[in-house]
Amino acid sequence: MSKRILVIGAGFAGMWSALASARLLDQVGRTDVEIALVAPKPELHVRPRLYEQNPNGMKAPLQDIFQAVGVRFIQGKVEHIDVANQAVSVAGVGADTPRQLISYDRLVLAAGSRLFRPQIPGLDQHAFNVDQVADAAELEAHIHGLADRRESAGRNTVVIAGAGFTGIETAAEMPARLREVLGEDAAVSVIMVERNAAIGPDLGEGPRPVITQALTELGVTWKLGAGVAAVDAKGVTLENGERIEAETVIWTAGARASELTAQIPAERDNLGRLHVDRNLKVKGVEAVFATGDCAYAATDDEGNFAAMSCQHAMNLGRSAGHNVAADLVGAAPIPYSQPKYVTCLDLGPWGAVYTEGWNRQVKMTGGVAKALKTRINTEWIYPPSANREEALALADPRFIVVA
Question: What number of CA atoms fall less than 13 Å from residue 375's CA on the CB side?
Fold first, then answer.
């Protein structure tokens, strides 16, 4: 009787999990194990690029790759995971995709994360975001529509709620995007709002002088020490009572692991990520592995844990895919290890800043760093070609992507 490895999610971690499982099964000559991947569509959404223009173009097809390596794609959305009976309930996403109950022998939860939306009055109704392709496309359409509105300070003002990685990259793009729509001579205002006392609170002191220099030269300003208390159609009210008139508010403040992690009876961190061992098996749960943004995974022996990032998701996926297949067929696992950590923060027309290490030592800035960021965004994070040998070779968990 054949066995089944089921991967939930077609993001960076899910895609690489499926390819890595196929790689190991190919190596050991096992043809009695099916690899199935369930997702709404057979495409990778290039989420790290959604702060850029043309978000609808930030998709990469996966069906040809899956067919080349022997991964079965199942179209649908997972609603329930039954760990006790090792089955997953999948709802259809259209008339041609009926509800299914899919059994598994091993499960990889790679369902990613979603933008955290606290209960702030007016947030859901009036704030935009760049979390998913449809969200970013809605924002882009709104920005293009500003030119049809009556000129006012509020029309020409964008508030970015959150001054973390995504908030900074989004803010750095906004002055140029606004002037493209409103005119080069338009008096535009881009204001970042951050509850913490510094820009990029999670990025540390290392790159902060570069970030503040770039944002200042781009014309971006910021307000620190008070978060957003309420949002309406005309602007935001801060926790300190200050009012900012703005017809465009973009929420970027943090992410949480997929709600599916709550269906796994195991320990989770404060972001909802499942605690996993070094092979990415969920602690205390048989036959279930977690990866990408769903996994709270140690990257090294120094006390560092993977961030919710494309950089970590790709390698977490490779490791989870190899180890879930190894666990099923009795092959040797390759413990997840990713001691090298880098960041490359896009700073719009100004350039970028590239750092190395968890203490984020600045190594490159400006145009040189921007060239690296462009390669990362347009080449390195995209799927491999549909060439079977190439795809399987790149799925080796020892092939470390550092950017």
Answer: 9
**Sign of torsion, CA 75 77 80 84?**
positive
Across 21-105, where does the E strand assignment appear?
A: 33-39, 43-45, 59-61, 71-75, 77-82, 87-91, 100-103
pLDDT at 402: 52
Cβ–Cβ < 8 Å for 343, 355: yes
Structural domain harbouring 178: 117-251
Residue 279 near residue 333 (C-beta atoms within 8 A): yes
The answer on 211 and 261 residing in a single domain is no
Residue 395 contacts residue 22 (beta carbons within 8 Å): yes
- What is the Cα–Cα distance from 30 to 94, expressed in whole angstroms? 34
Asked whether the predicted pLDDT for residue 26 surpasses 90, the reply is: yes
- Asked if residue 403 has pLDDT above 60, the reply is no
Q: Are residues 37 and 163 in the same domain?
A: no
**pLDDT category of residue 401 using cuts at 50, 70 and 90:** low
Using one digit for the tens of pLDDT, what is the confidence trace for 341-390? 999 999 999 999 999 999 999 999 999 999 999 999 999 999 999 999 99
Q: How many domains does the chain have?
A: 2
242 and 287 in a single domain? The answer is no
